[in-house]
Amino acid sequence: MALLEVTQLSISFLQYTKGSRQQTVTVMENLDLAVNEGEIVAVVGASGSGKSLLAHAIMGILPANAVYSGSIRYGGELLDEHLLRQYRGNEIALVPQSVTYLNPLMRVGSQLQTKLDGKAQASERKGLFKRLGLGEHVNRLFPFQLSGGMARKVLVSTAAHSRSRLIIADEPTPGMHPADVAEALSHFKQLAEEGCAVLFITHDIEAAIQIANRVAVIYAGAVVEVAPASDFQGEGEQLRHPYSKALWQALPGNGFIPIAGSQPSKSMDLQGCLFADRCMSAVDSCMSKQPEPRQLRGGTVRCLHAT
Amino acid sequence: MRLEGKGIGWRYGNGPWLFSDYDIAIQPGESVGLIGPSGSGKTSLGRLLAGYEKPLTGEVSVPGRSPNHTGYDPVQMIFQHPERAVNPRWSMARTLTEGWSPDAPLLDALGIKDDWLRRYPNELSGGELQRCCIARALGPNTKFLIADEMTTMLDAVTQAQIWHTVLEIASKRQIGLLVISHDHLLVNRICSRIIPFG
Amino acid sequence: MKQASSVVTLNGANRWNERRRTFASTILAAIFLAGIAACSWLLGSSGLSVQLENRNLAPSMTHLFGTDWLGRDMLSRTVKGLALSIKVGLLGAACSVVIAATMGLMAATLGRTVDRMISWLIDVCMSVPHLVMLILIAFVCGGGLKGIAIGIMLTHWPSLARIIRAEAMQLMAAEYVLVARKLGSSRLKVAIRHLAPHLLPQLLVGFLVLFPHAVLHEAAITFLGLGMSPHQPAIGIILSESMRYLSTGMWWLAVFPGLGLLLTVRAFDKLGNHLRQLVDPRHTHL
């Protein structure tokens, strides 16, 4: 059984239209995803596809006007407010996007420490800092005194302690120097080898396939394909969904080939396949009903034509 | 007729110099890549060239820029986070026409749809917003475009789409491009000349 | 964040959403204000006259709020007192907002030296307790209504000025404002089209938050017996006088004026907080 299991997750937002009237805008519909222990699952997709929302939903930090349905299970238990309070920052850890998520007025050392920490944890963190190449003095620094690379390591270390079993990393790499990216990725790899489940959210496919076991491709709020990372190679022939193929072939290192159109926006109500209007092989049946996820060659795909 | 920085230097407050006595020149119609790690001052250099800041030493010269920096600037800059570059209270129609009125062919080429114009920034995705920011910056008097990590936050498909369009327009109108990025593969793809920085 | 099953229904029929609550509290506050003004005008000054044969009456149909030890009608006194407090509050808060806006904008736009001077002034003003400053200023101005109004004006601006300064600075460094200049908009155009629409609602909220403060401070200073002559029906004077009679069991002397003051302050405090949420772009859709 998977450590983290997201089933049929839908997220909508209540938004004002005119004056005091509100409407619900659905941004994610029936999303399924599972992460096993010792496994890294990367979630890749366009900005606005809902990848960060997934992380926020799992951590229970969606904005107040969000409404969700479906279930998120952690170790078989339904992850509700009560359980989250118990596990968050403890067994379940979030690696945030940037240092702005740290308290600017607290020294690094004291904000890494939680209420539950005893001597054992303190010495563990000491070892961790050493392994990451962070000096003892870093504990006494304030967040603004950290350089980019140091900040990244500090953020990774917030999650990397022996209690964590599930780590959710939200876009930890954009704008980073390639050497730093490689280093950050190796930390996650190491954590997974020690038995953690890692959900790695990014739009950088190259970074994703370097470390992930499986890659989930998300488009307009739906997981259109889950594929083994090794399928991302060559011209992308191994890939199942036409969007995954397009994404792969659009990389500057591959073909740099664009496809026309853009991701359907949040407020659009689509009946059929979300990708149909940009798909070369779309037929009438694609327009009428959204395809259900189905198993295919060791992965999952939501497409009628995929072979 | 080129965008030129001569002996320019910049630092924040009394901090270390990010760069000093730096020379750079961009010809019309060429596409130059500026590549280097984060924090090395690439963005600051871009801002100096675009006239957002006065260099502490040296000077930037551009044909067609008014001496007191008023009026439509021949050097336009596109930022990494499009949602910060538009007024959150303005509809896209108002945002797009702030400097000039983009014509239908340009909007078409950039894939900007009519129904976006009535919407507000929080109702568009990052890629859609960035297209609008680009259309806004491509007025008839734009001679140089500085793209600061313009597609870093976007997915590969949108990135390829946007760059294909921008390169096409730039070569047709002989606009000089400065592409600031940390992505070697991208810069290799789209630039005729690459300057390592920092 | 809510699970779909609970309070919020999915079709968006959230009956008491933030915008409607704000609207409702605006109406309530307006009715309250209009009520006080209308009563004050209708009751005239007849109830304020001394009628020794009617003294110390408990609340009844003829004297809803009872009468005091001089036979004055407490309803009239309460309404007049509130009207006076509100008048002073409105005047004080409005002038504070003008001072705060001027100071904040000057600090943000006129360069580093001016900014340092104004920031220093703000720090100094905020480090001295409001009430002490208020008493000093009221005293220097020779007391009376004028003294208190000037005192409130001069003590309540710093916190708002600090907010306006920060907002203006942030706005002027915002990418979209910088871009607007490069697209050829003049400074004036940027100020009118980008800065003003953002700052004006902030000022309105500032006013609504300052107003109950000003009313409370007016009450506090008159309660302490500084400022106005005891013949004026200020709410603070009424309350402080009633203290002397509380032990004799005349509870109505303090309860009704006190409640009136509480209601005024709460109504506007609530309204201010609601509006502040609406103005905050992070909360647009709450």
Describe this structure in words.
The complex is a heterotrimer of chains A (307), B (198) and C (286). Chain A is α/β, with parallel strands linked by helices and 307 residues long. Helices cover 27% and strands 25% of the residues of chain A. Chain A contains nine helices and twelve strands. Chain A has an eight-stranded mixed sheet, with helices on both faces. In chain A, strands 2-1-4-5 form a four-stranded antiparallel sheet, with helices on one face. In chain A, a hairpin with a 2-residue loop joins strand 9 (214-219) and strand 10. The model of chain A has no long low-confidence stretch (mean pLDDT 83). Chain B has 198 residues and is α/β, with parallel strands linked by helices. A five-stranded parallel sheet of chain B has the order 5-6-7-3-8, with helices on both faces. A three-stranded antiparallel sheet of chain B has the order 2-1-4. The longest helix of chain B has 18 residues, at 156-173. Chain B starts with a strand and ends with a strand. The mean pLDDT of chain B is 91. Chain C has 286 residues and is mainly α. Chain C is elongated and about 80 Å long. The termini of chain C are close together. Strand 4 (66-74) of chain A pairs parallel with strand 1 of chain C, so a sheet runs across the interface.
- Our count of domains of chain A comes out at 1
Principal-axis shape of chain B: globular
How many domains of chain B?
A: 1
- Name the CATH class of chain B: Alpha Beta
Low-confidence stretches of chain A: none
Distance between the termini of chain B: 27 Å
Strand order of the largest sheet of chain A: 6-7-8-3-9-10-12-11
Order of helices and strands of chain B: EEEHEEHHHEHEHE
CATH architecture title of chain B: 3-Layer(aba) Sandwich
